[in-house]
Amino acid sequence: MNLGKKEDTVPINAGDTAWVLISSALVLLMTPALAFFYGGLVRKKNILSILMQCFMMIGLITIQWVFFGYSLAFGPDAGGVIGNFAWSFLKGVGASPNADYAATIPHLLFMAFQLMFAVITPALILGAFAERMKFASFCVFSLLWATLVYDPVAHWVWGVGGFLKNAGALDFAGGTVVHVNAGIAALVCALVLGKRQGFPAKISPPHNLPLAVLGAGLLWFGWFGFNAGSALAANEIAVNAFVVTHVAAAAGGLAWALLDWKFSSHPTMLGKITGAVAGLVAITPASGFVDPIGAVWIGVSVSVVCFFAVSFVKVKFGYDDSLDAFGVHGIGGIWGALMTGLFAQKSVNPAGADGLFYGNPALFLIQIKAVLVTIVYSLVVTFVILKAVQFVMGLKVSPEEERIGLDLTQHREAGYTVLD
Amino acid sequence: MKYIIAIIQPDRIDHVLEALTAREIHLVTVSTVLGRGRQKGISAVYRSHKEAGSLLKKAKLEIAVNEEFVKPTIDAILEAARTGNIGDGKIFVLDMAECIRIRTGETHGVAIG
User: Fold this and answer.
1) A52, A128, B44, B47: which could form a disulfide with A190 (CB 3.0–4.6 Å)?
2) Domain span at residue B85?
3) B51–chain A Cβ distance below 8 A for any pair
4) Judging by beta carbons within 10 Å of its beta carbon (0-12, 13-18, 19+), is residue A73 exposed, middle or buried?
5) Phi, then psi, of A69 in degrees rounded to 5
6) With contacts defined as CB-CB under 8 Å, which chain B residues touch A312?
7) Is residue A348 part of a domain?
8) Residue A9 placed within a domain
9) Structural domains counted in chain A
10) CA nearest B49 in A: which residue?
């Protein structure tokens, strides 16, 4: 097929283009889904602040991406660490495919698909500072974080010339770029902002768990676009990613329910969805490289690891990662990246590599390196950005505003009315 | 005239309303409230973190009656709300100074029925 817009237009594949279009829409849906997943877990007085922050990311990061973010992440390489500004304002990003990234779909579509990832990644972090961050500071922090942390790390792992890509690190759909990166930033945020008043004993329980379950269900649905869409084609790799994504989520949810049953005496709904999300997080980097049985192991093991992280480690160290953004996305993302180094198979994807369990210990070491580099970079730069924003405009709302709630104090709205 | 307040288990509301209707007592206001007594609640667990669960859900009934209906009202509540377990609730009986029907302006006993 030829769009016929320009003489130099290269043919695209209609099936691939249709699938990546749908996948882009699915990944966009994950940000509102995350809003409800997180929103159901906070107190009534803060529900709108969560929804607003998530929707703000859709607006703010979309514009950042179109203006210069895409160019920084995927544009022509500068020293293996960042793209240059050549593709700013989407200059030259049009109907023709870019063979370096996706040879059968328009370059503009590849940009749009990646845009949805850039939107959700900073949104993941807000689970750590929920219920206490100033809205204006949140906006500035997120914009800086997207530019100084997300864009470079995306370039290292996925960009042509990126040094981790050149080292052979495998990250199919964003285990390190999205989850480790956001998860570590979340931990830094929780530590720098400090606890909510009354944490941990006097924080009310989740105000609307059904809302959180709805959000988790929509996240699961959207994740098919996130992972299977990352094949950037309607092919065997996409089908494999689709299946292992579902299997890992199912296994993760099942494992967490069983752990709850054993350690908290009853299986809980919140545990079930937390386990499913942990499974989705962990399979993300692996989804293009492992088979369904590998996915079972990844789903079960990540639930065990994350369960202990949020149940015991968080209690022991006492940091207030309000909605377990670090506990699930950070820990789960690290685990998934490492598991990719164990379970990856060339028989699943010839473009990938064999993992430790298939005779190639080198991949496991490369995965460790990619994780460590991401952790250190995200940790340091997130900390510097937070301190700078804190110095200029402060990070936390006043104790009184925190007591009244962010919905009223930051947005002059209430999520729920008492009468009518 | 008495004003009767009963705090009962929420799942007994239907039984109590039936028992009151059987005694021709129709005027009732019901609200769901939180409260605590000597018993402990069932504590909820969220991602392995146990909530204290110090306040329990209860139903609060408010019933205004003329003197001859005081005993039937109390009997109806005792009969229908009692399970024999801790947490069945309490009945409070207060003297009522006046009652006025807003639609007609009628006062006292005739305004109650």
Assistant:
1) A128
2) 2-112
3) yes
4) buried
5) -60, -45
6) 48
7) yes
8) no
9) 1
10) A311
| Domain, as residue range, for A92 | 14-411
Per-residue pLDDT of chain A (420 residues; tens, 9 = 90+): 444 455 456 789 999 999 999 999 999 999 999 999 999 999 999 999 999 999 999 999 999 999 999 999 999 999 999 999 999 999 999 999 999 999 999 999 999 999 999 999 999 999 999 999 999 999 999 999 999 999 999 999 999 999 999 999 999 999 999 999 999 999 999 999 999 998 888 888 899 999 999 999 999 999 999 999 999 999 999 999 999 999 999 999 999 999 999 998 899 999 999 999 999 999 999 999 999 999 999 999 999 999 999 999 998 999 999 999 999 999 999 999 999 999 999 999 999 999 999 999 999 999 999 999 999 999 999 999 999 999 999 999 999 999 999 999 999 999 998 877
Indicate the pTM of the whole model: 0.90
User: Which residues of chain A make contact with B51, given a CB cutoff of 8 A?
Assistant: 205
Tokens representing residue A197 in the block: 């008043």
Count of the separate structural domains present in chain B: 1
Mutation target among A268, A274, A307, A321 for the B interface, most CBs of B within 10 A: A268
CB A277 within 8 A of CB A250: no
Nearest chain B CA: its distance from A12 CA (Å):
47
Minimal Cα distance from A260: which residue of B?
Answer: B48
The two three-digit tokens of residue A90, written as one number: 């989407």
The DSSP output letter for A195 is P
Report the distance separating Cα A173 and Cα A23, nearest Å.
Answer: 12
ipTM above 0.85, yes or no: no
Which tokens belong to B67? 């003197």
DSSP A7: T
Question: Do the domain assignments include residue A4?
Answer: no
CB pairs under 8 A between A and B: 30
